[in-house]
Amino acid sequence: MNKQKGFIPGLEGVVAAQTRLSRVDGQRGELIIAGYPLAELAGKATFEETTFLLWHGCLPTQTELTAFQTELAQLRPLPGATLTLLQAAARKQIPPMDALRMAAGTLSLDMGERDAPQMAQVITARFPTIVAAYGRLLGGETAVSPDPTLSHAANYLYMLTGAAPSAAQTRALETYLNTVVDHGLNASTFAARVIIATQSDMTSAIVGAVGALKGPLHGGAPGPALDMVFEIGAAERAESYLREKLERGERLMGFGHRVYKVRDPRAEVLGIAAERLFAADGDMALYSLAKSVEKTAVALLAEYKPGRNLQTNVEFYTALLLHGLGLETALFTPTFAIGRIAGWIGHCFEQLENGRLIRPKAAYIGKTHLKWQAVELRTSQ
Amino acid sequence: MNKQKGFIPGLEGVVAAQTRLSRVDGQRGELIIAGYPLAELAGKATFEETTFLLWHGCLPTQTELTAFQTELAQLRPLPGATLTLLQAAARKQIPPMDALRMAAGTLSLDMGERDAPQMAQVITARFPTIVAAYGRLLGGETAVSPDPTLSHAANYLYMLTGAAPSAAQTRALETYLNTVVDHGLNASTFAARVIIATQSDMTSAIVGAVGALKGPLHGGAPGPALDMVFEIGAAERAESYLREKLERGERLMGFGHRVYKVRDPRAEVLGIAAERLFAADGDMALYSLAKSVEKTAVALLAEYKPGRNLQTNVEFYTALLLHGLGLETALFTPTFAIGRIAGWIGHCFEQLENGRLIRPKAAYIGKTHLKWQAVELRTSQ
């Protein structure tokens, strides 16, 4: 393929948006969420507060927060047709991210004409209902109806299990959702911006983002990091297991990050959250095992990949924390979407404000003046 | 808002892909489709031939074409859950593009694990089934099952009306679908590329593209151009009507194009196709009226906007041709999608081959070191 002048593969280094939502500083290992360093916000805010912050640029007052919580809570129940679709998908054992994408596209069915801010609330409120219902349907159980008296995060855990969560469990999930709420112009966020930039609707943009998040290159596959901990099984086996893996040239899932060169600030926040969760409600044996595996892995990575500074990343602690909350591995990425949706929507608001179509160019590298040939004259090429 | 250095609004002028699918040359008024000038291909190829050309880089031999037609024809029936969803959407009178996006997302429901080339066929084969079924359901009629003995285009017209179309009608629709099959890196095509570049699935990419195509800034709203012809009603009223509109500073829908400065090559091809269709099967009075309106509009535009060279664009003839085929205005954009899907999928194949994530950067323009404040201490901003 001849390289066309000007083609920028992957749009690497191109600045495609201006944002007030988050700043990812890989060199300094810093993540700012709408003005707040992640560690300042993630462990304190409810998910409703963080969502309000991203959409309005400031944390809500008590009056604003109460109104916002109430609006979201009322919007949680799904349209009948959405539930019917999820049941059909569960009968076919469709993977949860596909089911989430299908269901998300139908969320406007009982809404009539709604503007972007209204649909933003509808979609955000209903993502946990979709994921929890589908998780239960996949396992042959019936869906649990949302409880409007619970917070967004607590209600998600309630719909998953049928039991109200502890305060420690709710706090752990809030911290997780806040931690993954936004992360610069990642591929799913960019997909949402490209779609909404045509002045299409919020649902279309979010469905596109879910589709992009599904892709293995997007990152965010926390399952394998935990699988490794389970495979190791006991702290004394960690070193031999990991050493063999590294000798074979395999990657250790849950360590290292493309952008963060020093440390992943999200791993730090989630590590603290996981420790608190396990101390309060969890299986401390699993937690201790995971910490041993982590310590051994970081030490061995320094030995095998000197100078690379490969640290524990967000996926390692995500897996530990979500597992500690009782989630199946298959629901990890859909739960990531439940958090990230607030960021996707915030980016959509910014893009709508900017009001401009995103339309780069393609360089044509094909032929130009072929002549039509009737089908009977064509030969295999 | 302080302008961040390097931000490229709309990614204007940035080359984000290399393609062999189409070349849009606005200065010369030329459109190349996979090596063929549009006029060389559009009026001769069946839609199956054009689709094969875009996906494989060459026109099919007779054997290849027969196999491809047969495969597509067998895939046309929709999953039961998709039809149920369309019925629910019709009860709520959801607009057709929303219904198409919802239904498209569910097309893998009866397919199990399929790779990208297989899903490409499934989605392409089923788009006309969705649109025709939904058009009928919206009008309170029952869906017509696809007829596997008819070509892709003929079967779409059959499913819309319940009657097999004439050869002239089928040819007119083939020419239309071929004409809109690809057009560089427009916003919906770019959305599909961003999504598939994460190595997500074909369905996710196409659902994203449909969502982008919905947006008013995407272009492709052929309804209004025809509405104007109907409002004028008689050739002798064209000049006064159009002159008044121009005096009021209003835009004439169906004339002028952002990219094509000389003439829109698609308008030329569709103009010929429309004339043939109306001569064979159509309402020649409407055709003559439309031609009068066009002639008057182009003359008046030269008078009111000298030097701008505002010519008839693709939307004007699209509206005339699709109306001549008996389509409701509400189905014009979904029918556009039935053609463009072959291009979307061709771009997805190219992007998968390239194998690289599309991930530009955002410039952060917000604050950086805010301190957490408890909710009761916050004041309205």
Plain-language structure description:
With about 375 residues, chain A is mainly alpha-helical. Chain A has 2 domains: about 20-190 and about 200-210 and about 330-355, Orthogonal Bundle (Citrate Synthase, domain 1); about 220-325, Cytochrome P450-Terp, domain 2 (Cytochrome p450-Terp, domain 2, Orthogonal Bundle), CATH 1.10.230.10. Helices cover about 55% and strands about 5% of the residues of chain A. Chain A has 16 helices and 5 strands. A 3-stranded antiparallel β-sheet of chain A has the order 2-3-4. In chain A, a hairpin with a 2-residue loop joins strand 3 (about 30-35) and strand 4 (about 35). In chain A, helix 12 packs parallel to helix 14. The longest helix of chain A has 23 residues, at about 115-140. The first copy, chain A, is globular, with a radius of gyration of 23 Å. Chain A starts with 14 loop residues before the first strand and ends in a 17-residue tail after the last strand. In chain A, about 55% of the residues are buried. At the A-B interface, strand 1, strand 4, helix 3, helix 4 and helix 5 of A face strand 1, strand 4, helix 3, helix 4 and helix 5 of B.
